[in-house]
Each structure stands twice: as C-alpha cells, then as structure tokens.
Specification:
Elements: H1 4-11, E1 29-32, H2 36-47, E2 52-55, E3 71-72, H3 84-100, E4 105-114, H4 121-128, H5 140-153, E5 164-166, H6 168-174, E6 184-193, H7 196-210, E7 215-217, E8 220-226, E9 229-234, E10 240-243, E11 247-250, H8 256-261, E12 273-281, H9 283-289, E13 293-297, E14 303-308, E15 313-317, E16 321-322, H10 333-346, E17 357-365, E18 382-386, E19 396-400, H11 407-421, H12 445-456, H13 460-470, H14 474-481, H15 497-506, H16 512-519, H17 530-544, H18 548-564
Helix pairs in contact: 2-7, 2-11, 12-13, 15-17, 16-18, 17-18
Length: 572
C-alpha cells in the first residue's frame, strides 16, 4: 500500500493545464466513510476500472465497523420481523465470505437455549406475516421453524450444516452451566469475523492494487463545500485540501445526516441505536461455552450472545439502545450491569465480575429513522439519491443502514447505480474474488503451516500464530523479514519487532492507536499496558521516522483512547 503521505501529495493541487492557479483534484467518485460499506463500494468500483477517492475522518473501519459483534451471520432474529429477503441475502453472503476470506471468517457453532415449546407461536405467525413488528417470546417450535427457513437459504454455496435440536442429555453434558430452566437447545452454524478492521484494510489494499489510480485517505475529514468543491482537512495536521468530484457517495454511517447537511441536504435519514460489548478474561466462561456461541433471548425480548475469542477470553454483548448522538460510543456502567444480569440468567453457575473485564467497546448502528421499538427497526440497507441542486453540481448517494455480512451485495448495488449514471457496463462481480490472505487457501492448513515453519526456520507454534493472523499472506510478510530472525517484543512476546515494523510501514498506519486497536488484538485482549504502549510507540516511531516528541504524544494519545473510549471499570 502507498503511504498516507504519498496519497496526500496526490491531493495537493498542482497547476492545471492552461490555468495559472492550482486546480483541485477531480475524482470521478468521492466516497465519504471508510467503514465496511464505503470500503466495499471503493473495491467494487476499482474492479470496474472506476478510481474512487475514499476518505474518512478516522482510520479504516475505525468507527461502527470496529464495534460489531464480530459476526458474519444470516441474522436469525430478522426472520421474526419478516425480513426474509435480508436473511436470504445474509446467509448467501456469509457463505461467500467463508470461501473468499477463510483466514478471517471462520465457522461458528451457535446454540439457542429455550425454556418452553409453544411460547409465542401465534404472535410469531403475525410477525412472519408482517402484522406485528415488535419482538416477543419464542419457544422451541418457533425457533425450529425459523431455522428451517435458514436451512433453505443456506443451500446456495452451502458451507454449513443444517440445524438440529440438541438432545437434552448432550447439551447438559457439554454445557452444564446452562440455566436449569433450559428445556430445549437448537443448534445451527454461522461465522465469526476474527479481525474486522484487518478485513477492511485488505479490501482497500486489493482495490488499490486492481486500480492504481484509486486512493484511500485516512484521517481526512469533510469540513464543508464551496460550490462544486468539497473541502477536506487533515485531522492530524490541520492542512486543508479541496476536491471537485463528479459524484459523492455518503457512507458515513451514524454521521450520514451530518455529512449530508454540509452539502445543503437537510433530511433526517438516520435513527441510531447503540450496541456495547465486553471482553472478559474468564476461563470458566470460555470452557462452559464449549467452543460455541450462546445466542439467547432476554426477558425484555432482546438478543444477547457470548462466545470464546481464545482459551481465556470471551466476548459478551450486546445492548440495543436508542441514541441520536454519533459520539455516544462508551459502554456505560448501566450496560455492563445489564449484560452481567442477562448472562447470570443464561448461565447462573458462571460468576462474572468487573475486574475480569479487559476491554469494552460501543458503536452506533446507522439504522433508518423510525419511531418503533429498537429491536424491530429494519437492519436492511437503502440508498437515497439527491440529484444536483442549486450550486451543488454533483449528485449525492446516501447509504442508510447496512451490515457487515452484506457489505459486498450492498456495495454492488451502489456501484451498479454509479455505473449506470456514468454510462459504463459492469466488468465482473466481486463475488468469488479471494480477499487478502484468503487467496490460495490450502485445503488442509496443517501441511501449509508445517512448510511455513520449515521454510523460514520457525517453531510450528509461531508459524501457526502468523498463519492465523495473516493467512497465506504470512509467507510474503516473512519474506520481508529475511534474512533477519524475528525478535520478540519484551512486553508482547507474541509479536515481533519485525512484525510491528512491517505493519507500521506497509499498512497505512498514521497513529499508534491504529496498530494497538485495529491492526492487532493487543487492546482487545487487554494487553495494552503502559509498558507495552511505550515499547510499541518506540518501535513504530522509529519505523515511521517520528521525532521523540511525536512518539511521546502518540503513546499518551493511545493510552487516553483506551482509558476512555474503551473504558475498563476500576482502571485509570
């Protein structure tokens, strides 16, 4: 990938032919928001030979896209409110991602504990038919019928087994911590996304490789408009830029309305809900989950979940609270209490405490503005087109909603609109194109990992770790280290000096927090201690040529972000 500095050089206007004054760059398409949907549009257009300019006020996939439940899933709960087409699309896209990005999208067994057989049967029929829009209780009969539909949708590019009802003797033996009120357990399969931000980064790299004129600029905020010129500001330095696009795609998520307002478009499209998650270090919980995601209904008919991240850590989520504030992204004490309470109901034998929380995060789902119950608001996406008006010569396509699982299909829909507007034909679909370290995926990873270890003189365990992080791209990364041997970091021996240097130089890193929060799992797993941040800051700073004062600033800034936005109760 090009460096961020090189991309900003491209945006610094030079004299145009025959013009004494500098002319602003004129990208054909400006995409605002480098969340997964903006990234998806950027990649799809690049494949069609349309060089977009993607900008974001933060890092790639650093806002809502970094705050999901880290799932690629069909959305079983959406059947309850009759969104069959969304569930079908989600299941099909999940199957594609399992094939296209197997290094980051992995199968996940899911179990649904159920207290009775017939609860909610009549009202659920009303929901399926669209007569009722509010969530309600669901017994074994209703869940089993929903999973039959799930199985039907799973037939295209099927990668997962069909559902089953687990015999009581089996689930009691495997998950003894389940509440005694659990009489039935339904089992199906979805997928987990091990590193959402890395998948977004790999999509950006792929787009720029396929279309060398495509550019993705991080920490570049839209500040206003002057006629056909859109004004941008470097968040890190304050430097100003201007571009004159032919078309704008607004994928700013929870900030769609805010960005539209800068273009003179004053319509309320977004009605966000807040979702918070906890990462807890609790071996008993991890073992009780038995390599499974627990997906359970709460007394207020919300859906919560818990699943292992590794042998020590589990992810617990999520809340679903109305908010109109895009900056409401801190997990509150009340939300922690709520998640602990519902987990105690689902698994009363497992005690969770605040001192076991190693990381929290929250994000705003950019749902369509609605007055309904939060759980009943559609999770499907829609595109609002605002044609040129007044002194605004370019159309604006604003995305409302959208989810991780369906980003490719959503991007294809937006790209097709753009292609039609510009008189182009689609060259090919993005379906079936391997992403990043998913290219050349081995049928059996074990011999591949063994060869990786032999080729580069690694222990089998180290080769397995790098393959787990980077997939088949681990080999090219290791080639970049040669002839040096990896030197483990003192504070983070699971990472090497060479590995962090490669990330800093090759993955468009602009802040220390980019590495701590998004290029690695260091913060997620509670490893971002003050000592670790100091060592990382020195390594990254030296790799990027930062002066000592910049290194000190980045260390302090990363510590502040982790200590506030990712607040861990009881820590300072």
């Amino acid at each position: 990938m090009l460096s961020r500095d090189a991309i900003l050089d491209d945006l610094r206007a030079g004299p145009g032919p025959g013009h004494p004054a500098p002319q602003p760059p004129a990208p054909e398409v400006l995409i605002i928001g480098a969340g997964i949907n903006g990234v998806g549009v950027f990649r799809d257009l690049a494949l069609q030979g349309v060089p977009g300019l993607l900008v974001d006020r933060g890092d790639i996939c650093s806002a809502t896209s970094a705050a999901s439940s880290r799932l690629i899933h069909g959305g079983l709960r959406y059947l309850e409110i009759g969104e069959f087409s969304l569930v079908r699309e989600s299941v099909e896209e999940r199957n594609r991602l399992l094939l296209d990005a197997p290094h980051l999208v992995r199968p996940l067994r899911v179990r649904v504990p159920i207290a009775d057989r017939f609860s909610g049967a009549l009202t659920s029929l009303g929901r399926f038919l669209g007569w009722v829009r509010t969530p309600g209780p669901k017994g074994a009969l209703v869940v089993a019928l929903g999973l039959r539909a799930y199985d039907l949708f799973n037939r295209r590019d099927q990668t997962m087994p069909n559902h089953r009802m687990v015999p009581a003797r089996e689930f009691r033996a495997q998950m003894p911590a389940l509440a005694s009120s659990t009489r039935y357990v339904a089992e199906f399969h979805d997928a987990r996304l091990t590193a959402p931000e890395r998948l977004g980064l790999e999509l950006v790299a792929q787009a720029e490789q396929m279309c060398p004129e495509a550019r993705a600029a991080t920490y570049l905020a839209v500040t206003g408009r002057e006629g056909g010129r859109i004004l941008l500001a470097d968040v890190l330095t304050g430097e100003r830029f201007a571009v004159a696009p032919k078309l704008v795609v607004n994928c700013a998520g929870a900030r769609v309305d805010e960005v539209d307002g800068r273009f003179g478009i004053n319509q309320r499209l977004i009605g966000g809900t807040k979702g918070s998650h906890l990462v807890v270090r609790n071996r008993a919980l991890v073992e009780s989950l038995a390599d499974t995601m627990l997906y359970f209904e709460t007394p207020d008919h919300r859906i919560c979940l818990a699943y292992p991240l590794d042998e020590l850590h589990a992810l617990v989520g999520t809340t679903d609270l109305r908010t109109d504030d895009p900056d409401d992204t801190i997990c509150s004490d009340a939300e922690i209490d709520y998640l602990f309470e519902v987990m105690a109901m689902a698994m009363p034998a497992i005690a969770l405490s605040r001192d076991e929380i190693v990381h929290t995060y929250a994000g705003i789902r950019p749902l369509p503005a609605s007055e309904g119950v939060a759980g009943a608001i559609s999770r499907d996406h829609s595109i609002r087109a605002f044609e040129p008006q007044g002194d605004r010569p370019f159309p604006v396509l604003s995305l409302v909603g959208g989810k991780w699982t369906t980003f490719r299909a959503c991007a294809e829909e937006i790209a097709d609109d753009i292609l039609a507007r510009t008189g182009r034909a689609r060259r090919r679909s993005t379906a079936g194109i391997a992403i990043g370290g998913g290219a050349g995926w081995p049928v059996d990873p074990a011999p591949y990992v063994a060869e990786l270890a032999r080729r580069f003189g690694l222990s089998l365990e180290r080769a397995r770790v790098l393959f787990d992080r980077y997939g088949t791209a681990a080999a090219s990364r290791l080639e970049g280290f040669a002839p040096q041997r990896e030197v483990p970091l003192t504070t983070l021996p699971d990472y090497s000096y060479q590995e962090i240097v490669a990330i800093a130089r090759e993955e468009r890193v602009a802040r220390l927090e980019d590495i701590v929060l998004r290029r690695t799992h260091i913060a997620l797993l509670g490893q971002a201690t003050s000592e670790a941040l100091a060592e990382l800051g020195t390594v990254v700073g030296e790799a990027l040529g930062w002066p000592p004062e910049r290194i000190a600033h980045e260390i302090a800034a990363a510590a502040q972000v982790i200590g506030t936005r990712h607040l861990v109760p009881g820590r300072t």
